[in-house]
Design brief:
The chain is of the alpha/beta class and about 140 residues long. It has helices at about 10-20, 35-45, 60-70, 80-95, 100-110, 120-130, 135-140; strands at about 25-30, 50-55, 75, 100. It contains seven helices and four strands. It has a four-stranded parallel beta sheet. Helix 2 runs parallel beside helix 3.
Length: about 140
């Protein structure tokens, strides 16, 4: 393994990727300027075959979900043991997904939250507009 580029913020990551075309990117989630998730999405828009492994101290379920939605192939915590990091790099390089067990647990929790129904979204919009229960019920009766 050879490091071909190192950058300090997400804005520079796309240029660095374009110049070095690495086999794999290890992307920090929290970067100044454009964060790692936005940088991942930007790289993958231009280079759909890019392989990106997210690295973070944070294991928040929404952050993990957003990273995977952006196209990351894996997500590991910075506290990972050296051997586990190497395994993650090799897995992602081979085209497989790799999630740290803690990360996988948080992602499973995030995915288990059901989405709101169309009616629930409609009611939420009415509440946001300041409508009261009577107005919302009346609207439902006229459907």
């Amino acid at each position: 393994m050879e490091v071909v580029a190192e950058v300090g913020d997400g804005e520079v990551a796309l240029d660095a990727y374009n110049r070095s075309r690495p086999n794999l990117v290890i992307m920090d989630v929290r970067l100044p300027g454009m964060d790692g998730i936005a940088a991942t999405a930007a790289i993958l828009r231009e280079f759909p075959d890019a392989l990106i492994l997210m690295l973070s101290t944070h294991a928040g379920e929404e952050e993990i979900y957003r990273a995977m939605q952006a196209g990351a192939r894996g997500y590991v915590l910075k506290s990972v043991l050296r051997e586990d990091l190497l395994r993650a790099i090799r897995d992602v390089h081979a085209g497989r997904r790799h999630l740290d067990p803690i990360v996988a647990s948080h992602l499973a929790e995030r995915l288990s939250h059901r989405s709101l129904t169309a009616r629930e979204l409609e009611v939420l919009r009415m509440v946001a507009k300041g409508w009261g229960n009577k107005e919302i019920r009346k609207c439902a009766q006229h459907r």
